[in-house]
Amino acid sequence: MSISTPECLHLILHPNLLNPFKKLLTTTKAVRLEPKPTYLLESLGLVRAIGNDCIPRYNLYRQYFSNRIL
Question: Which site in 2, 24, 32, 65 is 20 to 30 Å from 42, CA atoms measured?
Fold first, then answer.
């Protein structure tokens, strides 16, 4: 994974967030994550919570991170 963005650096520093974020990148539908990773990823601005489910905040994030961490 390239650490060219602050978001990538956060995912490297918090490896417990990497797997939940990868789940979001592998589908185009909203994904239900555990509350703590949801809160942390949302506070980093990487995801948007919709009820109990999450989606990447922007489709561009899905494209960008899919090329770097999948």
Answer: 2
